[in-house]
Design brief:
With about 90 residues, this protein is an all-alpha fold. Helices cover about 85% and strands about 0% of the residues. The chain is built from two helices and no strands. The longest helix has about 60 residues. The N and C termini lie far apart (about 110 Å).
């Protein structure tokens, strides 16, 4: 009678543990998918950051190559707008 009782208890435990293990497998799969998705997004953002850094470096090099007597330097926003309007007229 003890052996039968133990077998029943073990079967009951097995029936309760199996769904938990299946749940862990499902969560593991979901975590893997999220990780892959995040890795793709991080790689994409890294590419974008590199592109912006290259554009900024090119812009900076272009800006630094302008003559020191740049008429825009030291102007306030209103002065810049006025200067741009004058240049547009000429």
């Amino acid at each position: 009678m003890e052996k039968e009782h133990l077998e029943i208890l073990l079967e009951d435990i097995k029936d309760k543990v199996e769904p938990i293990l299946e749940g862990y497998d499902t969560l593991h799969s979901k975590i893997d998918r999220v990780e892959e998705n995040l890795e793709e997004k991080i790689e994409f953002l890294g590419t974008k950051i590199d592109a912006v850094a290259n554009d900024l470096a090119a812009h900076r090099a272009d800006t630094e190559s302008h003559p020191k007597g740049n008429p825009m330097l030291g102007m306030g926003r209103a002065d810049v707008n006025f200067y741009n309007a004058l240049v547009g007229i000429l």
